[in-house]
Design a protein that fits this description.
Elements: H1 3-72, H2 78-99, H3 109-123, H4 125-134, H5 139-155, H6 167-198, H7 203-225, H8 229-239, H9 242-256, H10 268-335, H11 362-390, H12 395-421, E1 434-435, H13 436-444, E2 453-455, E3 461-463, H14 468-484, E4 492-499, E5 502-508, H15 516-527, H16 539-551, E6 554-559, E7 565-572, E8 576-578, E9 636-637
Parallel strand pairs: 2-4
Antiparallel strand pairs: 1-3, 2-9, 3-8, 4-5, 5-7, 6-7
Helix pairs in contact: 1-2, 1-5, 1-6, 1-10, 2-3, 3-5, 6-7, 6-10, 8-10, 9-10, 11-12, 13-14, 14-16, 15-16
Length: 646
């Protein structure tokens, strides 16, 4: 082995290691985010959620008693003093959160900022109290001061309380919405309590009461619609009970009265009995709903933690073991005596049969085993990426996952091509025939710029299972060559034609084409690939020739009608069989891979996944005559879509 070959091996292994580490790092990041979100939500509920809830209730009570005190123009009574003390105790708990540094909340900076803003507003509460005691605030100003503080307290519940979409996040939003509806009822209570103190309801107050009653009823109904099913039943029993009935009757009585008239039919005692019972029942529902949602989410939390440990821990172990194996392999190769680059090396002929090895092939066997291990790891990577893509993510994350999936598919193509060129058989193979349309799609999915490729929809043939892997990679080489030798604003078209001896797959580009001598040289290479490797500049065509020879196909190039190059892959009757229709059924779901049962995969093929990489499945328009697909009129684009995802 020459020094340049050793350097090439080291570079390729370094690239594979970088790709593997990148895939693991991203998978670990995505899996860890779920666990971090879960820990943050639980920490917020314990350290901030309960204190803020108690604070809001205390402020609501203090606001009502303050309104009654301002209306009577009397000094603060014992109930108001007690309410202020309760608010101060809840404030101390919120202040402790703002000053603490819980490590679980490192990613909740916005929540901490909103908590700091709440503490600053609470510091100004003493000014409102002193002005109330001095009689320098009117009723509207005093109530508005408390309303602003309560609004800031509700803003603490931001998106960080449910950063990823889940049942717990939906329940949390419903609970917060119900608590806000309760706040509207508490504001209504403050207005009515102040009016009952004077015995009259002014025109502006009656208009404000009408708005509050309508708003709190609507908000309460909307919030209840988002509750879990069991809690919705509890809510219906609550609103159908006598306490709610009494409150509704009193509200209707207040709304029917004339502006400025003396309140009749509503007393302080009847109002307090109805509204206190209703507020207490709503608070109980909020508390029990939050607790039951957390209990329902506990099994899912355990799954998230276990999945994170598996991806981060076991995945890291696999990566390290693989990297150490590669390092040892490179060290052994480096320690072995190397031939100078300019020495005449004896060419190693290509093996004549599948599964064969080169003469004296100790190094050959070593690299073949290493490549097969890489193939198994790539299969596991694709399975992991597939599962990650099935989870709902943002558009940006889904796009990045799809790019990783596509890169991994292309790496797998290179690994399987290396195995095939070494004379062995890749582990991923099929026993039963596969629709030729799916084979063409699988080939397109393995190339860059696949969105520039148009696939005709009518393919009335099936390909023999043992030839699927080689034909997929053969078409990939030809399609990638066509893409590379044509402008980026043009397309490459793939279609099938009936031939007496089987069928032909055509890959046509709109590039500048080849002159007569270059075309003749390329066809000679395709007819008889040299045994000592590809000539300079023809690596892709050499690989296509070897793959065609393995499966019994024949490849030729000619100029196309548009001036570009057309590659014709002749598949003999031993490889293809006619089908009734080459079109997918109208009921075929979008973006699905060709279905294979476990029996479809050849049992002796270890680590074979039995799937073709596919971007999207379309239902095409009516096709042309049987046995031919049009290159110029009926074409189907392979869309930019995630692997096996709608």
């Amino acid at each position: 082995m020459t020094r340049s070959e050793l350097r090439l091996i080291r570079v390729r292994l370094a690239v594979l290691a970088a790709v593997l580490l990148s895939l693991w790092s991203y998978a670990a990041y995505v899996a860890t985010q779920d666990a971090v979100d879960l820990l943050r939500v639980r920490a917020l509920a314990d350290t901030l959620g309960q204190p803020v809830d108690r604070l809001i209730q205390g402020l609501q009570t203090e606001r009502r008693l303050t309104a009654e005190t301002v209306t009577r123009a009397a000094p603060a009574a014992a109930p108001l003093v007690g309410a202020r003390e309760g608010t101060d105790r809840a404030t101390a708990d919120v202040r402790e959160f703002a000053e603490g540094r819980d490590l679980r909340l490192l990613s909740a900076g916005d929540v901490r900022d909103r908590a700091d803003e709440l503490v600053r507003r609470l510091d100004g509460l003493s000014t409102i109290r002193s002005q109330v005691d001095a009689g320098s605030l009117d009723l509207a100003e005093a109530v508005d001061g408390y309303d602003q503080v309560i609004d800031v307290a509700f803003r603490v519940y931001g998106p960080e309380w449910g950063a990823y979409e889940s049942a717990l996040a939906a329940d949390t939003r419903a609970v917060i919405a119900l608590a806000r509806a309760r706040e509207l009822l508490a504001r209504e209570d403050t207005l009515v309590s102040a009016a009952l103190t004077t015995g009259r309801l002014a025109a502006d107050e009656r208009r404000q009461l009408t708005e509050l009653v309508s708003s709190q009823r609507y908000a309460r109904t909307e919030a209840a619609a988002g509750l879990p099913t069991d809690d919705q039943g509890e809510y219906q029993r609550l609103v159908g009970g006598p306490d709610f009935a009494s409150l509704l009757a009193l509200e209707e009585s207040l709304l029917r009265g004339d502006a400025g008239t003396t309140l009749t039919g509503v007393t302080v005692q009847t109002w307090r009995a109805a509204v206190d019972a209703t507020l207490g029942a709503l608070q109980t529902l909020v508390t029990t709903t939050a607790r039951s949602s957390a209990e329902r989410a506990a099994p899912g939390a355990a799954v998230v933690i276990a999945r994170t440990g598996a991806v981060v821990g076991l995945g890291l172990i696999v990566v390290l073991v693989l990297l150490l194996g590669w390092v040892n392999t490179v060290r052994r190769l480096t320690d072995a005596p190397a031939r100078p680059d300019d020495d005449a090396a004896v060419p190693v002929p290509a093996p004549s049969g599948a599964g064969g090895t080169t003469p004296g092939g100790a190094d050959h066997d070593l690299f073949l085993r290493l490549t097969r291990r890489n193939q198994a790891l790539l299969r596991d990577q694709l399975s992991l990426l597939d599962g990650m893509q099935r989870r709902e993510r943002s558009t940006e994350e889904t796009s990045e996952l799809f790019q990783l999936d596509h890169l991994t598919t292309r790496v797998r193509r290179n690994v399987e091509k290396l195995i095939a060129l070494a004379g062995a058989t890749p582990a991923r193979r099929w026993r039963r025939p596969v629709p030729l349309l799916d084979v063409a799609r699988g080939a397109v999915a393995e190339v860059p710029d696949y969105h520039r490729v148009l696939i005709a929809p009518h393919w009335p043939w099936s390909l023999a299972g043992p030839a699927v892997t080689d034909v997929v990679h053969l078409l990939s080489e030809l399609i990638e060559n066509a893409l590379a030798h044509s402008a980026t604003d043009t397309t490459v078209r793939v279609a099938g034609e009936h031939r007496p001896q089987g069928c032909a797959v055509l890959v046509v580009d709109d590039g500048p084409g080849l002159d007569a001598s270059a075309l003749a040289e390329a066809n000679r290479l395709l007819d008889s690939p040299p045994s000592d490797g590809p000539p300079p500049g023809f690596a892709g065509l050499y690989a296509a020739a070897v793959l065609a020879g393995r499966c019994g196909a024949h490849v030729a190039l000619r100029r196309s009608q548009r001036g570009g190059t057309a590659a014709i892959v002749l598949l003999p009757t031993g490889l293809v069989t006619p089908r009734d229709s080459g079109r997918e059924p109208a009921t075929a779901p979008p973006d699905t891979s060709y279905p294979h049962t476990r029996d479809d995969v050849d049992p002796p093929a270890p680590n074979g996944d039995g799937e073709l990489p596919t971007r999207v499945r379309h239902t095409g328009p009516p096709g042309p005559e049987h046995g031919r697909t049009s290159l110029d009129t009926v074409e189907m684009p392979v869309a930019r879509a995630a692997r096996r995802h709608p």
